[in-house]
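Record type: monomer structure entry
Structure origin: computed from sequence
Chain ID: A
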Amino acid sequence: MYTPPLYHWPPKSLWVQAPSRRRTWKSFSAYFHFPFCRHLCDFCGYETRLITKDSVTAFSRNAVAQTKQHSEIDDFSNSHLRSIFFGGGTASLMSEELMAGLLTILRSCAPSDEPPEATLECEPGTIGRAKLEQARIQGINRVSVCAQSFDDSILRAIGRRHTNEQSMRLLDDALGAGIKNIHLDLMYGLPGQTHQEWERTLQVASTLPINHISTYKLYIFKHGRLNREGHPRGLEELESDTARTRAMHSSINEILGGCGFKQYTLTEYGRGGYGSEYIKSCFDGGNLLPLGPGAFGRCGNEVWENSPYVQRYSSHADANTTGALKLNSVEALKRDVILGLWLLRVNLEQLAATHSVNIRPELFGLLDELCCEGSIEYSDGAISLGAHQRFGAGQVMKRLADLSSDQWGTARSSDQQPHYSDLADQDLPRDHVTRLDQLIRVARRDLDLFNALQKNPGGTLQKLGYDTSEAHVWALLEAIQGKQSSSCDARVAEVRQMWSDIRQEHARQ
């Protein structure tokens, strides 16, 4: 069965430590999350809300405040800004003033004669040539066209509001505005999409005046609209669906590779030497400065996440980190190897030397197993994924993640930080909260699910597979019903607070 590759390790549910108040940045990339959309797509797993004028005004004010706060508190004295990425949500709905303000602050943190790669993610139909020309003047030099498909009927099936004609117009407008570095987002495994249609999509894309393409497999989120309509998801998908998407995946290299596009990550293809510096920085162990709700950051061996609640983010001057985790050297090695596989090849021995870690036999044993199974290649101290191994990369990442840090290696120097597994052992109830958090995240974005929970909470929770007699589920049920709780459990309080936050957000929309 298909297993989606890991975007984060360790799991975010374990990011429960207090964050650092001040960080020192060297080479880094910045990601700004604009969480508003004109319509919420079911396949999107990012923090998004329907756009309103009042919500954007409050959010924009605090976004600038948070960015200034980083520039004033953190140490950027010896830093280099690799890239900036404006994503979402629908970043093309941002005001020119907000974009200009953020770019000015970020560039002042790390002045350079060479402008950094600066990407604006755009939904077709939400931005025109005049605004793109202004964005280029402000410093945007790369545009991501989120087309997903060139078939209007498929776009409607996944809830997209734009058309193929608007995608092509956006491409023309970006070129006309003087932005030559253009990236195209495409998806496969979509409802109603045949293998033949997907190959036509790739063939059309390969003829466009662009130099970068992303190809993503549709992932069905638990409790989302597509999942509630009976579509399989993740580990639960049928073998026939896995075989279908595997065949679609095989066509990507065949068609794009034949047109000069070279694959350099599990999902990215560049032509003419083009590759995204931001995308590389997400997986090569680089530092990431997170701005906006739900954005995650990394600086050295610390990882953290901003609050995902837009209302909370927009109403506090210091609506920053909700949780962080400081990795020890072995865990940092494990993180960099697992995520490094996105780049198709990762040098284990080189990273072990960088982190001052001695590799244990158990890890070599697992790598031998994966080699014998044909899942990876291992030579000269490096793990690599051949073209035929990349579809199953998620399974490789999962098996590496399941091997405990103690079995990965031992630190060569004194390293007294606790293992994340120690935190897990002390915090087992969080597993229950994590399951509910997934449900609440969907209810924040999906008004139909939110209303169903409000109208019939017990029946809806049971229908979705939750045991309402379990303490944490019962806490959510009481919160929905507006009942007080006598429990002093911090996890119960967390569940109640999550529901209170999303109810306030829906009330303000």
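Annotation 1: Residues 422-429 have pLDDT under 50 and may be disordered.
Annotation 2: The chain is about 45% helix and 20% strand.
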